[in-house]
Write a structure and sequence with these properties.
The termini are far apart. A 7-stranded mixed beta sheet has the order 3-2-1-4-5-7-6, with helices on both faces. It has a single domain, classed as Rossmann fold, CATH 3.40.50. It has about 260 residues and is of the alpha/beta class.
Length: about 260
């Protein structure tokens, strides 16, 4: 049954090559975190990552919303200090940080394929393979740490925040996003197709977890009234309609929170 599901996925999305890696990931039982690491290390997943998520109008809108929030939060960050993007993935945030004038950019990822992709695409960034839960960086290294589309992959984010608290300078900040609600968190139907299970956090819950790990909330931006993946399937008129509603809808209804945390 699992094998059939994966084959259906390959046929339906038409994005990933039919290869042994994808099939074995489904057949072999493994921990969710291990599955995700292997999934995002597969060459076909990496090669199609941006196109799959951000190519059409809906995907571009999601990307723009995320980038605008990051730009806003980075506004008062020291441009001369070291900045870390983890996981760097395909490097989609690098042009924004370079345009803003950040001089010392570091990118880290566990996936060798993601790192190779970013290395081929961008220059003037120091890339290294790192385990985000236990990096090799020195304490108090970074003026800013950006970590988008990562925390919702894990049920326990305390260890991630603890490591980021170790890495960030006392006057620095951490920028990350969490998912408040999504159908993907209610069912495992899309888990294997989209890189594993998704985990949600209420704003209150996340604020308390962050406090326990030595952070306070400097700012929070609420974006996307609809879960980000669904924007990819909306016709243009529907996206325009949703954008209008987002201007007036209560912030508690939005699906994603982007946080700027500072050390306590």
């Amino acid at each position: 049954m699992l094998l059939i599901t994966q084959l259906d996925y390959l046929h339906y999305f038409g994005r990933f090559k039919h290869n042994r890696i994808n099939l074995l990931l489904i057949i072999i039982k493994m921990k969710d975190s291990e599955y995700k690491r292997k999934y995002y290390s597969a060459d076909d997943v990496v090669d199609n990552y941006d196109e799959f998520r951000f190519k059409n109008r809906g995907g571009r809108y999601v990307h723009e919303q995320e980038v605008q929030a990051v730009e806003k939060f980075l506004g008062d960050v020291d441009r001369q200090g070291m900045t870390l993007d983890i996981p760097v993935g395909t490097g989609r945030l690098i042009p924004t940080m370079q345009t803003m004038g950040f001089k010392s950019l570091c990118g880290a990822d566990y996936s060798p394929s993601m790192l190779a992709y970013s290395k081929n695409k961008y220059q003037n960034i120091l890339l290294s393979r790192q385990d985000a839960f236990n990096t090799a960086y020195s304490t108090d290294t970074f003026s800013a740490i950006i970590s988008l589309r990562f925390f919702f992959h894990y049920a326990d984010i305390s260890k991630l925040l603890k490591e980021f608290r170790r890495l960030v300078k006392k006057d620095g900040c951490v920028i990350l996003d969490t998912i408040v609600w999504s159908p993907r968190a209610w069912t495992s139907l899309f888990a294997e197709r989209l890189g594993g299970k998704m985990y949600t956090y209420s704003d209150e819950n996340f604020t308390e977890i962050a406090r326990q790990q030595g952070f306070k909330v400097e700012r929070v931006e609420k974006i996307l009234l609809v879960p980000s993946f669904f924007y990819n399937f909306m016709p243009s008129f529907m996206i325009s309609f949703i954008k209008t509603i987002e201007k007036f809808a209560p912030k508690r209804l939005f699906t994603k929170s982007i946080w700027k945390l500072t050390p306590i």
